[in-house]
Design brief:
Blueprint (H helix, E strand, L loop, with lengths): L7 H29 L3 H4 L14 H9 L2 H32 L3 H13 L4 H14 L6 H26 L2 H9 L4 H12 L1 H17 L2 H6 L8 H5 L11 H36 L1
């Protein structure tokens, strides 16, 4: 029994590695926040500091004055929410059928998921653009939503398949023995246990669509329809010189919705997992 326990030095090493990883992840964001509140002289200084000596909101005011950030954020929010909802609605029944009825179809679906994730954006953008052009969906937020759904659907399907397979089939069999129909079993037994997976998949689809840049850059030409990642590039000058202060302020604001959504849904994921453990 003692051999299975992790030794004290091993635990210390694990915590140290975890702390180093957290610092590695947090460093860009903390530096971004620090830059967003620095004044122009501090940004031009050859000796940068972590904490701004004279914090200012001038970068935020300049960012909103120079670019339509609220309109772009609204476009990104519509595209991200719509893509997440549609992707989850389509992937959930497909994942259930594929996970419960294994065979050549399930193997083909799994292979399609793996192969589709290896396609680079550049490889599909030309045929994708031609298809949307024929459908009159170029320079359309709805067309961009369809692209996001198609692009995130394979990974969403793969994620939900894992969650479906984690739900014991014996629970559905027991419900059937008790007289519950197929639909009643899915709604009352299986669906509550899939809530953590559905929430995690929706979060993935939302964040992917919110941060996506390449498709939005190619498909959206009208400034009024551009998303937030595309508008952020407007803080770059003609020679590629960045207006660092306003860019950092706008980028900081662009990261907040993802953090808020993740913080809000994280409780739902944990609560759903605990509920699933109790019901199982």
């Amino acid at each position: 029994m003692s051999a299975l326990r992790t030794s004290r030095p091993a635990r210390i090493g694990q915590y140290a590695a975890l702390l180093a990883y957290l610092v590695f992840l947090a460093f860009p964001f903390l530096w971004l926040v620090s830059t967003a509140f620095k004044s122009a002289p501090e940004l031009a200084s050859l000796h940068p500091t972590w904490i701004p000596k004279d914090p200012t909101l001038a970068n935020f005011r300049q960012a909103f004055d120079e670019q339509p950030l609220l309109r772009a954020a609204g476009n990104s929010l519509v595209a991200a929410v719509a893509a997440a909802v549609i992707a989850v609605a389509v992937a959930t029944p497909l994942a259930y059928v594929t996970a419960r009825h294994r065979g050549r179809l399930a193997s083909a679906a799994t292979g399609w998921v793996v192969i589709s994730q290896a396609f680079p954006f550049v490889l599909v953008i030309i045929p994708l653009f031609l298809i949307l052009k024929n459908l009159h969906l170029v320079n359309s937020v709805f067309g961009l939503v369809l692209v996001y759904v198609v692009w995130s659907l394979p990974f969403a399907l793969w994620m939900l398949m894992g969650y479906v397979r984690a739900v014991p089939a014996e629970l559905e069999e027991a419900a059937a023995v008790d007289g519950a129909g197929r639909l009643r079993t899915l709604v009352s037994v299986t669906a509550p246990l899939l809530v953590p997976g559905i929430v995690a998949t929706a979060l993935f689809a939302f964040v992917t669509a919110w941060n996506e840049f390449f498709f939005a850059l190619v498909l959206l030409k009208t400034p009024e329809k551009q998303t937030l990642p595309v508008v952020l590039t407007h803080f770059l000058g003609a020679e590629g010189v960045a207006d660092l202060g306003p860019l950092a302020a706008a980028a900081f604001l662009a990261t907040l919705p993802s953090l808020v959504v993740f913080g809000f849904l994280q409780r739902r994921i944990t609560g759903g997992m605990l509920a699933g453990a109790v019901k199982s």
